[in-house]
Amino acid sequence: MALSVKGITKQIRSRKIVDQVSFEVKKGEVFGLLGPNGAGKTTIIRMIVSLMKRTSGEIFINGKSLDKDFKGALNEIGAIVENPEFYPYMTGYQNLVHYKRMSRKPVSEERLWEVAKLVKLEDALKQKVKTYSLGMRQRLGVAQAILHQPSLLILDEPTNGLDPQGIREFRGYLRELAGSGVSVLVSSHLLSEMELMCDRYAIIEKGKLIHIETMAETTTVKQDDRRDILFATDDSESAKQTVEKQLHFPVSIVDDTRILVSAAYKDAAVINATLVGSGCNVYEIHFEKKTLEDRFLELTNHTTGEENQ
Ligand SMILES: Nc1ncnc2c1ncn2[C@@H]1O[C@H](COP(=O)(O)OP(=O)(O)OP(=O)(O)O)[C@@H](O)[C@H]1O
Ligand SMILES: [Mg+2]
């Protein structure tokens, strides 16, 4: 395991801002910590990177205990917790060299360029950091965090302030990193973004971990999942009548050719057969994919606030 968090708690005065949280991150996995503002995500991350003391619980990074082998465990981590700080008047290269010198492990010149290439900054490395866009700074932050080849990269809200293109590219680097065997722990309250980024995730609410599952489990449609199934036919009116009369599923009309039938996934086949059987050509069947947001709402009975982003 790249990371094992075992029952960690942070109590401040009488309040538990993180309460008995346990989870594991596997090798090469992108794992998400999801939850609304104030849920405790940053606090969990600060305890893992030892910027904050735990009240109780244990943390193992690549099998090394933070309590018993502090230096060894920390060597396994690369992190961007607060905004990474750089010297704006130095070039990207000079900044990385600076970090390379401060690194707890020796870092070769070759490794520096390998990392620059991975985050697609090789060409910009000779520019001063003050000329960098936010996205480039973010990438330099990742480069700096992975210079010493950590087994676990930790990122707290890494895409804050990035534009859609920047976020998309960022996902690409994370995937590449994960592909090369680095595990990633990433926090966010942006569900649509996490859906595309993570292999597995935990939902944190009011300091407690309430659920863990894989993104595949979340978004894969199950036989009994009920939603609006779209059918494209020649004529919506006759299609609606056929489905309502013969199968008694509620139908709404989208336009001249498309209807929405409220039914389970497994009913789609019989609806299709019924339509075709009564002379109604079917050109398209679309079953809307379940999103992480749908799942989040199911699990938390909350609104996500995503619409305000
Ligand atoms: N040092 C502290 N002293 C007292 N309360 C704190 C401290 N640090 C965090 N908290 C409280 O703990 C809760 C969790 O905060 P945390 O920053 O971990 O949330 P978060 O999930 O990262 O939220 P966000 O999405 O806004 O970043 C909040 O209610 C916060 O006010
Ligand atoms: Mg936070």
Automatic annotation (TrEMBL):
InterPro entries: AAA+_ATPase, ABC_transporter-like_ATP-bd, ABC_transporter-like_CS, P-loop_NTPase. PROSITE patterns: ABC_TRANSPORTER_1, ABC_TRANSPORTER_2. The keyword Amino-acid biosynthesis does not apply. It holds the Pfam family ABC_tran. GO terms for molecular function: ATP binding; ATP hydrolysis activity. Residues 3-231 form the ABC transporter domain. Keywords: ATP-binding, Nucleotide-binding, Transport. SUPFAM superfamilies: P-loop containing nucleoside triphosphate hydrolases. The keyword Nucleotide-binding applies. Gene3D superfamilies: P-loop containing nucleotide triphosphate hydrolases (3.40.50.300). It comes from the Bacteria. Belongs to the ABC transporter superfamily. PANTHER family: ABC TRANSPORTER, ATP-BINDING PROTEIN. This is ABC transporter-like protein. It comes from Heyndrickxia coagulans.
